[in-house]
Specification:
single chain, 790 residues, alpha+beta, seven-stranded mixed beta sheet
Length: 790
């Protein structure tokens, strides 16, 4: 059965990542299924083998056939959905303004520091042109700015919403055919109805009931009880993640299993038979899924909880693993887009770890610890071993106190969940609801305190290798730890060799990771040219550019991720930022600001554009920075260099806050390249910048605007006559940056191009009259003359 699950998973993932191949995959898998079934039928008719052999072969063939059928169903599902998605993408190209009416199908969730997003189905899409028939009913993802947070409680599952926005492309494999970035506040034209309305009212009632309780405990109660995370702040979410308690901020399989278990015990107390108790437990689970919103992630958690319940009832982990595999096969066949969902993968491996890894770990730990303590520790250790390799794909760190934090928080979680759920279900008696909410606050506050304490301890997170390499090395280390703990020591034989090999593998892995970490932190500066003047950090789709003069350092934007920015600063050896420039407040330019709060002297920024911008500014002020808004004409010193702001114009109605009001910085100084940093300006403000006559005659280095988008005023790049152009862009980004037009324009002027998606970290510096370029990706760069030698 696990083989069938793996087969289905691979087919579903390939089909969703490459929809154009879905039809071919479906044809191949349906054909293979038919051939397999015909072969089995023929073999049964002619076989004279022993009954046991026939039975074993039949079981294997059944599992393979099931996997093939599920793979065929999943790929067929994608193939049938692809035409509508392609039609919507052709009708609504990237950057097109659109009026949409959508039906909300998923709860609103935070996306970074300044955005919120929810899944929906577009019932109509209007682009100012006549929409062809069948234009609606496509899956979309709606992204809202933080300034629209007041309307978030109304955007509940089942609501019909009208909004205006700008179309964008989803990432490969996303369920959504389009991403709609709202440009105006959404308007609810019809709230949820029926049972969805009842569930919405219950959730809102619980949020209101905890409103008077102290933070941060109150923020966790709705999440623990009904999966409503609207009160969870970014700071609390970060603390929960660093302490490996993020699964307690929202509904997970553990919550669902708890509801099922309580319902089952209640049925036993009422004297019901096993079948009736099971039906009661499943009915409670169904009601809980509706209450916490029947979105894919919650349905997934519910199925995993049902699997765990069946495994416990059967008392056999092997059967539990088979049932888990069957659940995976069924879910992927019905919803193949789950195959690339990290949440789905974490649910599967976490449930599998409880069934397979935890029992031997408990037995192994019991050899040196009391049995109850060994049992308690085995569950979080098994979960860390199973889930850790997947989590480093998102954030290449390991929470060192995660096991301890989970042990301390574990007793409080079920109490907060059950009492909070009872509070949610008792709105008809306000006094009782308030009392239950207050009782739920006690364990919730304990969980929050554990998270904040663990995340604030020294070395709360250990750096790890990122990407696939990090996944493989951590998986190898986890497997080695499991073998050393779970496999009983023997003096001789294969098990002894296995333990010895595991010990050597663990030591080798830790040595490699420690060495890599040292190169990126303590020894990081040794891997870079010591004479660097400008560095573009490799932080994905965003900007983070360092400029250094006479020991003083400026950082222009922070990128989208504080972890990535922190890793870059550690490697470069920068601990203090003398000047922080926030060109504008989009998430890809300010999302990493937490990495430098408390380490900045002066901050300059463009016009504020909402509550999220105000919060970023407030955090920097609280951290001790001198913060000021700047406009065209502001200047200052950075070491021996002088910086000037060439844009934005003061109070210009033509260029409102955002990309087109980005701060454009000019840096000149003895011994460093002359630098022009264009933020995210589009063609219109670039043209106005040229018309203002504030640009120097030429520059050594220009940072291409907006990650190399197509919306450029090419004559500007001709005018600045730069020796090199820097493009800060994420590898495989969904926007198609940088565009070929701007690359051809730069090539036509003889400008050398360095881009972080291909070159990784890029360092530039002057060597006499030549601009040298270091590309961390290893590609050699020719020397480029600058100034009069060009």
């Amino acid at each position: 059965m696990p083989g069938a699950a793996v087969l289905t998973w691979i087919a579903a993932a390939v089909a969703t990542l490459y929809p154009c191949a879905a039809s071919a995959i479906a044809g191949v898998t349906w054909t293979a299924t038919a051939v397999l079934l015909v072969s089995v039928a023929g073999a049964r008719a002619s076989s004279r083998r022993r009954i046991h052999g026939r039975r074993a072969g039949s079981l294997w063939c059944t599992a393979v056939a099931l996997g093939m059928v599920a793979a065929a169903v999943a790929s067929t599902h994608v193939a049938l959905a692809s035409p509508a998605a392609r039609e919507a993408q052709e009708r609504v190209p990237v950057g097109r303004s659109v009026e949409a009416e959508v039906l909300v199908t998923g709860k609103v969730e935070r996306r970074g520091a300044a955005e919120w997003a929810f899944d929906a189905v577009a019932l109509s899409l209007e682009t100012g042109e006549h929409a062809p028939s069948g234009a609606g009913a496509v899956a979309v993802s709606v992204v809202l700015a933080d300034s629209d947070r007041d309307v978030l409680p109304e955007l509940d599952v089942g609501a019909r919403v009208r909004l205006a926005g700008v179309a964008d492309r989803p990432f490969a494999g996303d369920r959504a055919a389009l991403v709609l970035r709202a440009s105006t506040t959404p308007v609810v034209i019809r709230p949820p109805t029926g049972i969805l309305a009842v569930a919405s009212d219950l959730r809102s009632g619980l949020v209101a009931a905890v409103s008077g309780l102290p933070d941060p405990g109150r923020a966790l109660i709705p999440g623990l009880a009904v999966g409503d995370t609207r009160l969870v702040t970014e700071e609390l979410e970060t603390a929960m993640t660093k302490s490996s308690l993020s699964h307690l901020t929202a509904v997970s399989g553990a919550n669902c299993a708890l509801v099922v278990g309580v319902a089952y015990l209640l049925g036993a107390a009422l004297g019901l038979r096993r079948g009736a108790r099971t039906m009661l437990a499943l009915a409670a689970l169904g009601g809980f899924v509706v209450l916490v919103t029947p979105e894919p992630s919650v349905v997934r958690a519910g199925v995993m909880a049902a699997v765990a319940m069946l495994a416990v009832l059967l008392g056999r982990s092997g059967i539990g693993l088979a049932v888990l595999s069957l659940a995976v096969v069924s879910l992927l066949a019905l919803d193949p887009w789950l195959s690339i969902s990290l949440g789905f993968a974490l649910s599967v491996v976490a449930t599998g770890s409880l069934l397979v890894l935890a029992p031997p770990l408990a037995a192994g730990l019991a050899r040196v610890l009391p049995a109850p303590l060994a049992l308690i520790l085995s569950v979080p250790i098994a979960a860390q071993i199973a889930c850790g390799p997947l989590l480093v794909l998102v954030q290449p760190t390991i929470p060192l106190y995660g096991v301890l934090a989970n042990v301390l928080a574990a007793p409080a979680a079920p109490v907060a969940t059950i009492v909070g759920l009872l509070a949610c279900l008792s709105p008809m008696i306000p006094l009782l609801q308030s009392g239950l909410a207050a009782l739920a606050w006690i364990p919730a506050a304990w969980i929050a305190a554990v998270a904040e304490t663990a995340s604030a301890l020294p070395a709360a997170e250990a750096p790890w290798i990122g990407g696939i390499g990090g996944l493989l090395t951590l998986a190898a280390a986890g497997a080695a730890v499991w073998v050393l703990v779970a496999v009983r020591p023997r003096r001789r034989g294969a098990l002894r060799a296995l333990r010895l090999t595991s010990g050597l593998a663990l030591a080798l892995t830790l040595g490699i990771v420690s060495g890599t970490t040292a190169l990126r932190t303590l020894a990081g500066p040794l891997t870079l040219p010591g004479a660097w003047d400008v560095i573009a950090c490799d932080i994905g789709q965003g900007d983070a550019v360092l400029v250094r003069s006479a020991g003083s350092v400026a950082l222009v934007d922070t990128g989208p991720d504080p972890v990535a920015l922190g890793a870059c600063l550690d490697r470069v050896g920068v601990n203090r930022i003398d000047l922080l420039v926030l060109t504008h407040f989009d998430i890809d330019h300010t999302g990493g600001v937490d990495a430098v709060v408390g380490r900045v002297g002066t901050v300059i920024h463009g016009p504020l554009d909402g509550a999220s911008a105000a919060r970023v500014r407030s955090a920097l002020v609280t951290g001790g920075a001198d913060v000021q808004e700047v406009h065209q004409g502001t200047s200052g010193r950075l070491g021996d260099a002088t910086w000037r702001t060439l844009w934005p114009r003061r109070n210009s109605p033509a260029f409102p806050p955002g990309n087109d009001a980005s701060v454009v910085l000019d840096v000149h100084g003895a011994g460093i390249p002359s630098v022009l940093l264009l933020g995210d300006l589009s063609a219109a403000p670039q043209r106005a910048l040229v018309d203002d006559g504030v640009l120097s005659d030429s520059y050594d280095l220009v940072k291409v605007a907006h990650h190399g988008s197509a919306d450029q005023h090419v004559p500007l790049y001709d005018d600045v006559d730069a020796a090199a152009a820097l493009i800060t862009v994420g590898q495989g980004n969904r926007h198609g940056h940088p565009r070929e037009d701007i690359l051809r324009a730069l090539a036509a002027t003889g400008t050398a191009v360095a881009r972080t998606d291909e070159d990784g970290l890029v360092a530039l510096w002057l060597d006499d009259d030549r601009l040298r370029i270091f590309r961390d990706g290893g590609r050699a760069a020719p020397e480029r003359p600058v100034g009069g030698a060009r």
